[in-house]
Amino acid sequence: MSGKFYNTITEILTKQEFSISGVSRELKKHGYDYHRLIITGYLRALEDVGYMERKDVPPSRMYTCINKERNIYELIADKLDHISIEKRLHAAVFLLTNLLGRPCFKHELTLLGISNPHPDSNIHKSTNENLDHLRADVTRINIPPNDVAYELIDNAVPSEVIDVLLQILKERLDLGGLKSKHQQTTLVKIS
Question: At the top level of its lineage, which domain of life is listed (predicted)?
Answer without folding.
Answer: Archaea
